[in-house]
C-alpha cells in the first residue's frame, strides 16, 4: 500500500471501502488460488499472518530478480571489488531487503550513491542469530535514497541505531518502522515526513522521548508508539483525521479529547496511567468516535485508575475484540453489554476466579 501498488476501486452500493479492505480482498484471492497460505487468522476471520510454499518462494524470487522488482542480500564478500560488483548489479533494483548477519552486508548501501536512485523500498533486519554487540549503526547513508517510500529498520536490538536529522529530507516516505530496534532518540526533522501513512515507533528502548511533531503527519493511517515513552508536554494528535490505528495512547502524555477528531479510528490501545480530569465530559464529546472502534486494548497501571478504565471501555460498545491488562476485575463483569464481542483477552491481576459471570458465552470468549 505504501508504494501505491494498490489503488481505490469505484465505490459499490454506497459502501465505505478503505484501501486496507481492498488489500485484504487481494490477499484473500491469492489464498483461494493457493499461492499464499494462511498462517494465522484473527477472531473476525481476518488474515493476521501468511506464508508461501518454498517452491513458490523460489519462483517469486527468481522472477523478481529477472524483472528488477525485488532482491534479498544476506551478506557480501569482504573485498571491495566484490562489493562494487554487487552494487553494480543492484542499480535497477527497486526493492531491497538486507539481513545484517555480518559487517559486510551494511556496506552495500554506502558503497555507491548512484546505485540508490531507483530504490523504493529498503528493509533492514537484524541478525537471525545472536551476535556480539558492536558500535552503533549510523543510518546516514540512507539519506542518499531520495525516492524511498518504505524504510524498515527492525530487530536491531544488539546495536544502538541512530537516525540522522537528514531523514527529514526523505519526503516521499510512506512507511517508516524501527520496531524492536534499539533507538533512544528521534530527530524533530521527522515532522517533515508529511506523506507518511504508517509510523511504527515500537522500539526496544523503554524510555523513549517522542518529539511533538506527529501532528504534522496528516496522512497517517497507522501510528504505533512505544509501550512506555515520554514527551515534552502533550502529544497533539487531533490533526490525524485519517488515522485507523492508534497504539499506544498514554493518558499521561496524550490528550484523550483528541480522539474525538479521529473519526476513522478503528483500533485503539490506551494506557491509563494517571487520573483524568472531567472524564465524563471528554467521553461525551468523543462518544461517536469511540463507538466506531472495533479493537480495543486497555492497560491499567494501578488500582486507582480501574474505575476510569471502566468508563472508557463502556463508551466503546461496538468493539469486536477487547484486551484488558492490569487490575481489571470489575471490567470483566460488564462483558454482556457488548453484543459484537468475539474475543476477550485478560492479562494481569484480573482476579477472574472471584467473578460471577452468569452468561457462559462470555466465559467462552475470555482467554488468559
UniProtKB/TrEMBL annotation:
Chain ranges of the Disease resistance R13L4/SHOC-2-like LRR domain: 118-322
Keyword annotations: Plant defense, Repeat
Keyword RNA-binding: no
Domain Disease resistance protein winged helix: residue ranges: 1-59
Record's keyword annotation contains Zinc: no
Any single GO BP term: defense response to other organism
A Pfam family that the UniProt record links to this protein: WHD_DRP
UniProt superkingdom: Eukaryota
Protein name: Probable disease resistance protein RXW24L
